[in-house]
Every structure is written in structure tokens, then in C-alpha cells.
Automatic annotation (TrEMBL):
The keyword Transmembrane applies. Gene3D superfamilies: Oxidoreductase, molybdopterin-binding domain. Residues 305-431 form the Oxidoreductase molybdopterin-binding domain. The chain crosses the membrane at residues 36-63, 99-119, 140-160, 166-189. Keywords: Membrane, Transmembrane, Transmembrane helix. This is DMSO/TMAO reductase YedYZ molybdopterin-dependent catalytic subunit. It comes from Pseudonocardia cypriaca. It comes from the Bacteria.
Length: 433
């Protein structure tokens, strides 16, 4: 836009000067850009993004910040109201984290289309017209910057590509708060416009309007509509189909990582998770996160000399035969990774609550599990130790655990984030306070 109705508060001669000095910025000409398309895409994001935000924050809680289990540990003012993450339903984290990653990926084409639809505003001239408008542009910078940052860090993380050289969790968590603040401000400012924009055309009629009958929106001063629109090369329904098709394609390429089994092969965005331990179709044939080889544990460490150390009121050591002689319990439980993939298997072993009783702490306040792997450690809440399906698993699907899945013993707890289902367990410490 090269003229302002009243110069936006600039003295008139100055305004004319600035307006005439417009540098050779691109002139966007798509006739599809306008309040209707931007509003429709915005309302889709308004429905979907809160789910991504809430499930992301829930993942932070599920990691157990109260037991020092969350990353980043010290979040200063950004701490959430923390509660003990439940163990029921056992697929709770599988659902919340599957939604966080899955829906987050599915919405990427919608976010990109929304950015495409508003890009002329980035090149508005003059760049700043008033204090209020400068403030609004600043929130937009934070909004766009943070959502792109969250998408890029999130996608790199699920591909195990730590190219960014800083801690993923701290960055993604801080970015989430920037996004949340900017998103709330943006919705508060724009919701009335979005509702009006979406009502400016009938969706049903647009879905029946072919390319030949596609006309530009009327210029409403929103800065979205092209001043000199080019002839359309695509109808609005075509644009929606393109975005929807992109979202469906991403959904199709993602769903397999949590639906699992036969369709896991279609999960093209699933990284190393496609590696499986053991024979094809065998009991240990399901995704492996860190392999035994990558854990740097020696074969001797998991050989006949392996002992489980239990500490609590007293100390105890059990070898694998002694563990296998205790009452065994089988439960079908998911391993649900923060990266969005999950797999449900039948695990057998000793109940954690039986081990707590053996250690002389039948009512533990918490427990700390340590692995043979250097630095691998996880804390469990009382509820997670006492759930009747919480196991120190020795076997999976009727066979001994493969080394890649944590032989000699691993923790599996219903609804616990996969990262805390410690493999190659060395010790469990049951704490009474
Ligand atoms: N000792 C140890 N335990 C671990 C891990 C690890 O790297 N080291 N990875 C965790 C993560 S992030 C997940 S998702 C699950 C995956 O279990 P799986 O490899 O048997 O599928 O193991 C968890 N247990
Ligand atoms: Mo994980």
C-alpha cells in the first residue's frame, strides 16, 4: 500500500516522502491472498495448535520435574503446576506425545500456507506507521520466529540430528513459552478479524467454485489483498486441497510410528526406530532406541556376574536366576518415546512393588533406577512404583530380553515416558522420604 488515509500520524509532507521512497519490494499478486484464506487457515491452526502446546507442556510434567526428571531441570519462572503423572490409562503418554509430535508435523503444511498467505505484510511500506503497529509487528516477529524455531528443533530432534549445538529440551521449552505468549496475544488481537474474514465467503460455495470463477477478495485494508491481482492459476478449493493433501500425506507418513506392526514400514519420518533387535517377526522385533553397542556396556557386565542391587531399609543383591524365581507378572504395556513413536509389547518380570518390599520399603516415596550405562538414571514416583503392572522386566513376548532391549533387566511402567524405562538396570534405590 503506497498511500495512507491520513498519513498514519506522520506530518503529511513526510508521509508523502516516505510513501514515494518505497524501495523495490516484491509486489505480491496472487488473487487468492486475502482475508478469507488467511482466516480459514488461521482458524484451523487455532483449533490444532493448542493441542500441540498442551501436550508438549504435559510431556514436561510427565518427565517428573518434582523428582528432577525433567529437562531443563531449572526453568526459573517458567515452571508449571506440577502433579504426579498418572499410570492409568497405560497409553496416556503414548496418546499425548503421539499427538504432540504427530499433530505438530501434520500442521506444518498449514503453518507454511498461513505464512504464505500473509507474506505481503512482511514487506509493507513504510515498515512502521505507529507505535501500536510497531508493537503488533514485534509480536508477529516473535510468533513467526518461535513457531519456525519449534518446528525446526522438533523435527531435527526426532531425526536425532543435533545440528544446532545447544540442548534441544531447554531450547524447545523456552521457544514454546515465547510462542505461547505471542500466540495468545495474536489470537486476542486477530480473532474478531478471523471470524469476520472466514464469514466473508461461504466455505460450501468456495468448495464448488472452479478456477474459472475464482475472483480476488475485495481490498479491505488488511494489507493481504494484492493491489493488482494476477489472473488466478488455482481456485481456493484447489489451494485448500493442496494444503489438506500435504497434511494428509504427512499424517500418512507419520501414523505408522505409533500404530506400529504392519504399517510401521510406512513411517518414513521415523528414524532409527526402524531398527529392530532380533529375528524378523520374533519376540524382540520392535524398535530400538539406543542399541547395546551404543551403550558402551561390556558383554561381561551383562554376563553371569551381573547382580541387581536393591537399596532401601537394607541392601540386597539378586542375580538373574533369583529374580526369575520371584513371582512373575506379565503386562501388555507401551514404550512411548518423546520422539513420538511407540510400540506395545507383552512384558514379563518382577513387580517393582515386590522389589520395594524386598528392599524393606513397601511404601516408598520414590525410587531411583540406575543403569549399567554411564549416567543413565531415572526417578519414579510412589504411584509408578506401586502400580501392579510396573515391572522390572526380564522377558518380552515370552523370550528373554534382547541385549538391545535391556537384557538382563529393564524397567517398564504404564504411561511412563519411554526415556525413563531404563534398560540394562544395575540398581534400584527405594526412598522412604
Ligand atoms: N540405559 C538406557 N535406557 C534407556 C535408554 C537409553 O539410552 N539408555 N533409552 C530410553 C528411551 S529414550 C526409550 S524411548 C526406550 C526405548 O526402549 P527400546 O529401545 O527397548 O525400544 O528406552 C529407554 N531406556
Ligand atoms: Mo525415547
Amino acid at each position: 500500500m503506497t498511500s495512507g488515509p491520513d498519513g498514519y500520524g506522520f506530518p503529511a509532507p513526510l508521509w508523502r516522502l516516505i510513501a514515494r521512497r518505497r524501495p523495490p519490494l516484491p509486489r505480491w499478486r496472487s488473487p487468492l491472498r486475502g482475508p478469507w484464506l488467511t482466516s480459514v487457515l488461521g482458524l484451523v491452526l487455532l483449533a490444532g495448535l493448542p493441542v500441540v502446546i498442551v501436550t508438549g507442556l504435559l510431556s514436561y510434567v510427565a518427565y517428573g520435574p518434582q523428582l528432577g526428571g525433567a529437562i531443563p531441570g531449572d526453568v526459573g519462572l517458567l515452571h508449571l503446576p506440577v502433579f504426579d503423572w498418572p499410570t492409568r490409562p497405560s497409553w496416556l503418554y503414548r496418546l499425548t506425545q503421539g499427538l504432540h509430535v504427530g499433530l505438530g508435523l501434520v500442521l506444518v503444511p498449514v503453518v507454511l500456507a498461513k505464512l504464505w498467505s500473509v507474506v505481503p505484510k512482511l514487506f509493507a511500506w513504510p515498515p512502521v506507521r505507529s507505535l501500536a503497529q510497531a508493537a503488533e509487528r514485534l509480536t508477529l516477529l516473535l510468533l513467526v520466529g518461535s513457531i519456525l524455531f519449534e518446528i525446526v528443533t522438533g523435527v531435527l530432534n526426532i531425526q536425532y540430528d543435533y545440528a544446532f549445538g545447544f540442548g534441544f529440551y531447554a531450547a524447545h521449552y523456552a521457544g514454546a513459552w515465547v510462542f505461547l505468549g505471542a500466540f495468545v496475544a495474536h489470537v486476542a488481537l486477530k480473532l474478531p478479524h478471523a471470524l469476520r474474514g472466514a464469514r466473508s465467503r461461504s466455505l460450501r460455495r468456495e468448495l464448488r467454485t472452479p478456477l474459472a470463477a475464482t475472483t480476488p477478495d475485495a481490498d479491505d485494508g488488511s494489507g493481504l489483498v494484492a493491489e493488482h491481482p494476477a489472473p488466478p492459476t488455482m481456485s481456493r478449493r484447489g489451494a485448500l486441497a493442496l494444503v489438506g493433501g500435504g497434511a494428509l500425506l504427512v499424517a500418512g507418513l507419520t501414523a505408522g510410528q505409533t500404530v506400529g506392526d504392519a504399517v510401521r514400514g510406512t513411517a518414513f519420518l521415523l528414524p532409527r526406530g526402524r531398527t529392530t533387535a532380533g529375528a524378523d517377526g520374533g519376540p524382540n522385533d520392535f524398535p530400538v532406541n539406543k542399541t547395546f553397542a551404543a551403550s558402551r556396556i561390556t558383554v561381561a557386565d551383562v554376563g553371569p556376574s551381573w547382580r541387581l542391587q536393591l537399596t532401601g531399609a537394607g541392601g540386597r543383591e539378586l542375580d538373574r536366576a533369583a529374580l526369575a524365581a520371584l513371582e512373575q507378572h506379565t503386562a501388555r504395556l507401551p514404550i512411548a518415546c518423546v520422539e513420538g513413536w511407540s510400540t506395545t509389547e507383552a512384558w514379563s518380570g518382577v513387580r517393582l512393588r515386590d522389589l520395594a518390599a524386598l528392599a524393606g520399603v513397601p511404601e516408598p516415596a520414590s525410587a531411583v533406577v540406575r543403569s549399567l550405562e554411564d549416567g543413565a538414571r531415572a526417578a519414579l514416583t510412589a504411584g509408578q512404583v506401586l502400580d501392579p503392572d510396573s515391572l522390572l522386566a526380564l522377558r518380552v513376548n515370552g523370550a528373554d530380553l534382547a541385549p538391545d532391549h535391556g537384557f538382563p533387566a529393564r524397567v517398564v511402567v504404564p504411561a511412563l515416558p519411554g526415556v525413563h524405562c531404563t534398560k540394562w538396570v544395575r540398581s534400584i534405590e527405594f526412598r522412604s522420604i
